[in-house]
Amino acid sequence: MLDRSTPPPIADISQLQLPPYRLIRLSNGIPLYVVDMGTQDVVKLEVIFHAGRPFEHKKLVARATLSQLKEGTLHRDGAELAELLDFYGATLQTPYSLDSSNIALYSLNKHFDKVLPLLSEMLECPVFPQKELESFIQRNQVDLQIELTKPDVVAYRHITELIFGDAHPYGYNSYPETYSALSREDMIRHFQEHFTAGNCSIFLSGKIQPGMTEMVDSHLGRVIPAGTSQPHLPPLPDVPPQRIHLPHPDKVQSAIRIGRRLFNRNHPDYAGLYVLNTILGGYFGSRLMTNIREEKGYTYNIYSSLDPMRYDGAFFIGTETGTEFVKDTITQIYNEIEILQQELVDDEEMEMVRNYLLGGFLNMLDGPFNVADIIKTVVVEDLPEDYFQTVVHTVKTITPEDLQQLAQRYLRPEDLWEVSVGSGQ
Question: Least enclosed by CB within 10 Å: which of 233, 281, 348, 413?
Fold first, then answer.
């Protein structure tokens, strides 16, 4: 009989190694990263272009172009493409990020040769139908009107604009007129200039069958044209951080955002800040959650986060709370920051956070799609090949003294923007 009164022993997480992968060059020079470690007969093919906001000639054109790729080609309209993908049990997603435009195709192995040509067709001869663009604009204008009624959305939009500036790819916000200004010609130009081989990386993961990489080359190595392009990153505003309150008609809830500009994952202090952020507000047992949610009862959720992009980055603290609790919530946030700057993290908390993060790394290594996501981050953000091992090493070895110095260097109140949105201050 199993003795359920005795818990199993807790084992240390000692080995965290990124599984091996292959790098192949397609005929047009595009790198193809192959993660062959699946047990199910399914694969994921993800095509990533450096064609996000930093490459735009007009605001929102990157997002619009990506969303319209699957709305029709010279040979099939969007409905026919969707029907064929559904018939073969495939899924096509276009997850947009600030820096890149991604097309992800999930397929059963037995139908990969049927659905890959559909993806190839979308990248060879999209037509960007005017009617679908008009629907995209109308739909997003309605969604935007709804989103702007939420204090947390208004607060996030405002603080990112303050940090990076309203002309910067990472700082500008969308408005109804921004959508209205988009044209079919804008999308065609963005596609032709940036959906090129020099801007592209491809990731194939899952249970790879013989001949699959050759199929990828015969299709995508043929239709994606040569070319590369450079990002446009205007200078950041030279304005000292401020404390700003924005009135909002919501009488019950107010939103708080506190943050600053930081850096991308290439910075030598990023991994250490990753640990520090976890302690402050990066998981359910964090200090902000313990104080402001569990002890004070001011909010249902509060968090801190690092937001790394390819060319820059930011740090944010965010929460929504009752209007009457705004002032003390802000006070408690700064109190927790000050404690990190003045007192060393004790051994028990250090061990708990280390184990939490290492357990998260284990999940990142669980399955071919997750492994491909790690490789994708390294490639797309131009990180060293040993980046994952460097982060793991930092989590295992960082000291309380290191964390205190990071808090003193990067969490100074005078460096933090503060935005509150609600009916009172």
Answer: 348
pTM strictly above 0.90: yes
Domain of 165, CATH number, reads 3.30.830.10
pLDDT in tens, the chain (425 residues): 677 888 777 767 777 889 999 999 999 999 999 999 988 999 999 999 999 999 999 999 999 999 999 999 999 999 999 999 999 999 999 988 999 999 999 999 999 999 999 999 999 999 999 999 999 999 999 999 999 999 999 999 999 999 999 999 999 999 999 999 999 999 999 999 999 999 999 999 999 999 999 999 999 999 999 999 999 999 998 899 999 999 998 778 999 999 999 999 999 999 999 999 999 999 999 999 999 999 999 999 999 999 999 999 999 999 999 999 999 999 999 999 999 999 999 999 999 999 999 999 999 999 999 999 999 999 999 999 999 999 999 999 999 999 999 999 999 999 999 999 998 65
Q: Where are the beta strands (DSSP E) in 166-242?
A: 200-206
Half-sphere exposure (Cβ direction) of 197: Cα atoms closer than 13 Å: 18
DSSP per-residue string spanning 222-236: HHSPS-------PPP
413: nearest Cα among 333, 304, 327 = 333
SS3 407: helix
Residues 216 and 316 in one domain: no
**Structural domain of residue 188, as residue ranges?**
22-223
